[in-house]
Amino acid sequence: ALQVYGSIQDQSTRVTVSICNSLLGCLVKNGRSDSTFKLYDEMIRGGLSPDLFTYSTLLSGCMKLKHGYAKAMELINELNSRGLQMDSVIYGTLLAICASHNYCEEAEAYFKKLKDEGHSPNLFHYSSLLNAYSVNSYYEKAELLMKDLRSSGLTPNKVILITLLKVYSKGGLFEKAKELLTELEASGFAQDEMAYCILIDALAKGGKIWEATMVFNEMKGKGVKSDGYAFSIMISALHRGGYREEAKKLAKEFEDQNATYDLVMLNTSLRAYCNTYDTESVMRMLKKMDELNISPDDITFNTLIRYFCKAKVYHLAYKTIVDMHTKGHQLNE
C-alpha cells in the first residue's frame, strides 16, 4: 500500500481524503501506529483536509501507544479546531482509549457527554466503560452501568458479560463471579476457555489455589478446549504455591494432549520441568522449540541457565549464556 501511494505523482490525488484514510487505516490495522502519525503529518503538510473518518482511524492507532491518551487529546483538539463534531464512533474509540490507559474518570465524563449530546450508547460504548471499571475493580459502578444498559433496552452480549466477570474476579467477589460464569455457560458464552481463565487466575492470585483447581477441573470436565492459557495459569499457580510435582504433572498432561505450543506455554512447562530436575523433559521441550521454530526469550534463557547451574552442568550453562548474548538477550541479576 505504501509503495502504491509513493508512486502517485499528482499531489491533489495524494491528499484525497478517501485515499489517505485507506492508507492510514491499513497502517493502523497492521500495528504501525508510529508510521501512521508520521505519514499523517506529511499528508497535512501536503494539503490534506481530514474528515471524521480520518480522526476515527487515527484515534484507533492511539489504543496501544505508550502515551496514547495524550495523543488522542491532541487529535480531539485538532478535530474541534477544524469545526468537526464528535460522533458516536469517535466517542466509542475515546472510551476504549481511556479504558486501555486507565483513565476511568475521563471515560465516565465522555460517556456522560455522549448521552448529553443526544447519542444513544451501544454495546461497544458500554463494554468500553465497563472495561475501564474492571481495571480498578469498581464493581458497584459496574453494576449500576449494567442496570443502565438493560434499562436502555440493550441485551448484554458475551463481551459485556465477560468484562463484568473480570470486574468481579479482580475485586475478589468470587461468588458473584461463579454465578456469572454459570450464566455465561447457560447462554453458550463459555464454550472457550477465556471466561474460566479470568476466574481461575483471580482465584490463584488471591491465594485460593484449590478453588482455582476445582474451576479448572470443571472446565476440563465440560469438554472446554484449552489452547494452553488455562494450563499455563494453573501450572504457574501451582509452582508459586510450592506444588512443583503437581505443576510438572499438569505440564505433562498438556504435552500429552497437544502437539503445538506458543512461547508462553513452552516457558511455563520448561520451568515446571526444570524445578523438578526432569532433564529428559527439559531436553524434550528444547527439541520441541526447535521443531516448532519458536525463538527463546529472556525467560527461556534465564530459566535454563538457573537450571543448568543448579544441576551443576556448567558447560551447558556457559553455552546458553553465549547463545543468549548472541541473540541480544541479557542475563538477569
Automatic annotation (TrEMBL):
The keyword Repeat applies. The keyword Cell cycle does not apply. Keywords: Repeat, Transit peptide. PPR repeats lie at residues 16-50, 51-86, 87-121, 122-156, 157-191, 192-226, 262-296, 297-331. Coiled coil: none annotated. Belongs to the PPR family. P subfamily. This is Uncharacterized protein. It comes from Aegilops tauschii subsp. strangulata (Goatgrass). The lineage of its organism: Eukaryota, Viridiplantae, Streptophyta, Embryophyta, Tracheophyta.
